[in-house]
Amino acid sequence: MSKLTAIQKERKKQIEQELSVDLLVVPEVEIANFERIGKNLATIRDEKLYLPDPQFSSYYQRVFKLSSSRVYQFIDAYYVMTKLRESKVTQLPKNEAQCRELAKRKDNLVQIWNKALEITDRPSNKVIREVSFSLLKERLEQKLISRNQVPCPFSVGSIVSIKRSEHSQFTRCWGYVCSINNFTVTVQTWCGQYLSKIEDLESVIVLDQKSFKKHCDRLYQLFLKLEEQEVSVKAFLNELGKSSRVNLSLVEIAMLDAIEQSLTAKASQRQTLTAVI
After folding, report:
1. What is the 3-state secondary structure (H, E, C) of the chain?
2. Residue 132 — φ and ψ, nearest 5°?
3. What is the rounded distance in angstroms from the CA atom of residue 16 to the CA atom of residue 192?
4. What is the pLDDT of residue 101?
5. CA 193 to chain centre
């Protein structure tokens, strides 16, 4: 069996004296020097200062009457504190118990601790556990989303046509992409925005996307001014909204201008009437 050198024996003696004070003098519930206890226990283990005892476990059970779980709670707390100090967090745990759940999440313990501090200035182990589970759940959900996510061939502003829709008024409508979500795309059409599955859209090749978007927005503004009885006007706008043509015929341009003037005049009359009343 290997023996300790004189220097190692002296070092071991100093560490044991510190541990005896920290473990026996300070109350067990709030051990002020829990970080130092963990560091000293880790040093004895890693540098094999427990010799001539055959094992580290037999050493701390004989000398300090500590259980394995308690010893490694202190050691884990020391590693947690070291990691938090390296990350320069604004506030450190005040006792060993606050480190227990963090020790189980070594990969993201800094993130968990910072989140817990947002909830309370002195997070309990229960709060830390809840934050840990919450972040783990978010990570699993994100992995699930990434695994099942359909690659989106469109970008914001892309011109698309809706092949299929749960609402018949949007089927075969064209429009432009407003936003892209995990599994869906929001499309602005002549009669409003529609949340579509990515696979239910097809790309429309347009050279002048800016003019196309302007044309779509114009139709939508007219749609907003329509009244229920103006069925024929709605049918005309619907026809344009399902046609991917930006260059309208002279007749269509004249009709669109006339509709715009008529709806604007009606809106103005309603405002005047409301003001008089």
Report:
1. CCCCCHHHHHHHHHHHHHHHHHHHCCCCCCCCCHHHHHHHHHHHHHCCCCCCCCCHHHHHHHHCCCCHHHHHHHHHHHHHHHHHHHCCCCCCCCCCHHHHHHHCCCCCHHHHHHHHHHHCCCCCHHHHHHHHHHHHHHHHHHHHHHHHCCCCCCCCCCEEEECCCCCHHHCCCEEEEEEECCCEEEEEECCEEEEEEHHHEEECCCCCHHHHHHHHHHHHHHHHHCCCCCHHHHHHHHHHHCCCCCCCCHHHHHHHHHHHHHHHHHHHHHHHHHHHC
2. -60, -45
3. 75
4. 87
5. 26
Its pTM surpasses 0.70: no
SS (H, E, C) 248-270: CCHHHHHHHHHHHHHHHHHHHHH
The reported pLDDT for the residue numbered 29 is 46
Query: In the prediction, which pLDDT does 244 show?
Result: 65
Which of 176, 234, 163 has its CA nearest to residue 208? Answer: 176
pLDDT value of position 249: 86
Residues in the chain predicted with pLDDT less than 70, given as ranges, are 1-2, 25-32, 144-150, 228-229, 244-246, 270-277
For the stretch 200-212, pLDDT in tens is 999 988 888 888 8
What was the pLDDT predicted at 200?
92
Q: Which of 126, 94, 128, 97 is nearest to 111 (CA)?
A: 128
